[in-house]
Design brief:
The structure holds two protein chains of two kinds. The longest helix of chain A has 15 residues. By secondary structure, chain A is an alpha/beta fold. In chain A, the strands form four sheets. In chain A, strands 6-7-8-9-10-11-12 form a seven-stranded mixed sheet, with helices on one face. In chain A, strands 13-14-15-16-18-19 form a six-stranded mixed sheet. In chain A, strands 1-5-4-2-3 form a five-stranded parallel sheet. Chain B has one domain: Translation Initiation Factor IF3 (2-Layer Sandwich). Chain B is globular, with a radius of gyration of 11 Å. The chains are: A alpha/beta, B alpha+beta. Chains A and B meet through helix 2 and helix 3 of A and helix 1 and helix 2 of B.
């Protein structure tokens, strides 16, 4: 039997379509426990590849012959070796092309909806890491928000549609992934915007993103209003696009809210976070579609793969928006927080431009899931 | 540290450093030490886990100019 590569894009399709897949993950136990490919109908077996060097006889009873099988490792090599061994036993198997490295970097652009006067809004789902970024498109122009470091994906996407990137935004100084914002701005000549309160230590030029800014993309009526909503970081800013979409950054997620501790200031910022969620957001239309900068679990994906929900629905269902007691709220966001994201301090410094690690190092820094929310 | 044998696994990508290490250590006697040179960053994580699961001991590891060196005592 033969082995064939399966791309991260193909696996993403299976996640969105809720297909069945059996994943044989041959990374070390700790790596697998920390972070794996998530799919509603995926089944898993984890055994490090080095336990299989003498053969796969010992695990054949764990591998279902009637299911599609994908072997996964960190970079690709070991999964190919194990897939070969399984093929020799008569199985049809695939290996993940580029391994978890490729999985971490895959971005799936999905259209969220049409804007008034002909524009479109796209969500770029970084399925392996849970980062969400956006492209607003209107009349030949594009704005990109909370981009990941895979700058070329956005630039190529814009080029393929004949768009000129004119504005690039970060809703806040990210601590869990490296922003591609500055690089995209350099490549395209776009203006790079960052909340000044998050940018006190940055070493590059930026346009201060402040409450009340209006930015027009194209010559249609797409406006981006900056809504100062501190809490996750001191500068965290939300956008309302086309009176229809609320880009909530890391303040509000579908099933969770932002964590205030990644700059070491949980106690100081908890009151701001509460104010943003319980007062500022309450003042907005419940009809707005919330588009966060992250998702935590695969259940947050809608049928079409997007991560989006009406603000009114979140007010009704999101636990973090329904804690009447201020002390209880304070406790929830400052105690028993999940572990902090991998290398989050170095990631912050990279996003400030203070350090410039090479691509390989950046990859390593971003390994693992994002952890910027509390539930 | 006195190594019985030195394995050059530089330039090899996963899984080869472990494949070669396994072969090399099979040729040693219990208590003897294998010194491994590798450049694949994942080697550290993998060698640590592999020595443990195989009942060997990772006595020491260093990194100089991008070369990872390991000393594994056969168990």
């Amino acid at each position: 039997m033969t082995i064939k590569p399966m791309t991260a894009k193909e696996v993403t399709k299976k996640v969105i379509n809720k297909d069945e897949l059996f994943i044989l993950d041959v990374r070390n136990e700790g790596d697998f426990k920390d972070w794996k490919i998530e799919g509603e109908n995926f089944n898993y077996y984890n055994i490090p590849y080095f336990e299989l060097l003498d053969g796969v006889e010992g695990i054949m009873d764990k591998i279902p012959a009637d299911k599609e099988i994908l072997v996964v490792c960190a970079k690709e090599g070991s999964s190919m070796m194990v897939a070969d061994m399984l093929a020799e036993k008569g199985l049809n198997v695939s290996y993940l092309e580029g391994g978890m490295k490729a999985w971490s970097e895959h971005l799936e652009p999905i259209k969220v909806g049409d804007l008034k006067d002909g524009g479109e809004l796209f969500q770029f789902v970084r399925i392996g890491k849970g980062c969400l970024s956006y492209m607003v498109v209107s009349n030949g122009e594009a704005a990109i928000i909370d981009s990941t470091r895979m700058a070329d994906v956005y630039v190529n996407f814009a080029e393929s549609k004949g768009l000129k990137v004119t504005h690039v935004f970060d809703t806040h100084l990210h601590a869990d992934h490296i922003s591609g914002g500055r690089i995209i701005a350099e490549k395209t000549g776009a203006t790079y915007w960052l909340p000044p309160k998050d940018a006190t230590d940055v070493v590059f030029e930026y346009e201060p993103l402040e409450d009340g800014n209006d930015v027009t993309i194209g010559n249609t009526t797409i406006n981006i209003h900056a809504l100062y909503s501190p809490g996750h970081t001191i500068g965290s800013t939300s956008f309302v696009i086309d009176e229809s979409y609320l880009l909530s950054g890391d303040i509000l997620f579908i099933d969770s809210i932002g964590r205030p501790d990644l700059a070491g200031k949980a106690e100081d910022w908890v009151a701001d976070l509460r104010e943003s969620l319980y007062k500022r957001y309450r003042a907005l239309s419940e009809e707005l579609i919330v588009l966060p900068a992250h998702f935590m679990i695969i259940d947050e994906l809608n049928e079409d793969g997007t991560v989006a929900e009406k603000l009114g629905t979140l007010f009704a269902k999101n636990h973090g928006l329904n804690i009447e007691d201020e002390n209880e709220f304070r406790k929830m966001v400052t105690e028993n927080l999940p572990p902090q994201p991998n290398a989050y301090q170095e990631i912050r410094e990279t996003n400030m431009g203070k350090i410039n690690p090479d691509t390989e190092k950046q990859r390593e820094m971003e390994i693992g899931p994002n952890r910027c929310a509390v539930r | 540290m006195e190594a019985t044998k030195v394995l050059d696994a530089k330039g090899l990508a996963c899984p080869m450093p472990i494949v070669k290490t396994k072969k090399a250590i099979e040729e040693l006697n219990t208590g003897e030490i294998l010194e491994i040179h590798a450049t694949d960053k994942g080697a550290k994580n993998d060698l640590t886990a592999w020595t443990k699961s195989g009942g060997h001991e990772l006595v020491k590891d260093t990194e100089e100019d991008g070369v990872l060196k390991f000393w594994v005592k056969k168990g």
